[in-house]
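Kindly draft a sequence, keeping tokens residue-aligned:
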Amino acid sequence: MTDPTTSNPALAELAFLVGDWDMALSGASFLPDPEQVIRGNFGCSWIEGGAALAMHQGGPEPPIATWIIGRDEASVDYSVLYSDDRGVSRIYAMSLRDNRWRLWRDSAQFAQRFEATLSDDRNSIAGQWEKSSDGREWEHDFNVTYTRLS
């Protein structure tokens, strides 16, 4: 594991994400049974010598996805490149402040936003995704909880 404070100090506050996490997706609007809980894994690691953070999501039902996080040192927010095995490719903005993790994408065709709360020890994260087809009317998409495994 590379130390981002020497290779990319702009990402240092994300070091707590590095490792393996359990992922539990629930309350999903796209599932036939809204009570169903889908489990998967979520892993984060430094890439390119700590220049960026890669997050990999997988499991039996959620799409297999890769997130690449970087940041312009002059900005307080991050940029996130997302791609999954459905052929979906998106760019999100991201912030992390006061144990609040936010991602958002403003697109006229399909806008999304995510807000989560980190536990004080940063070993669990609980959040929810919302979606909008017009950027004005928002609806719940799904809940997600991450729990650190290592």
Notes: The chain has one helix and ten strands.
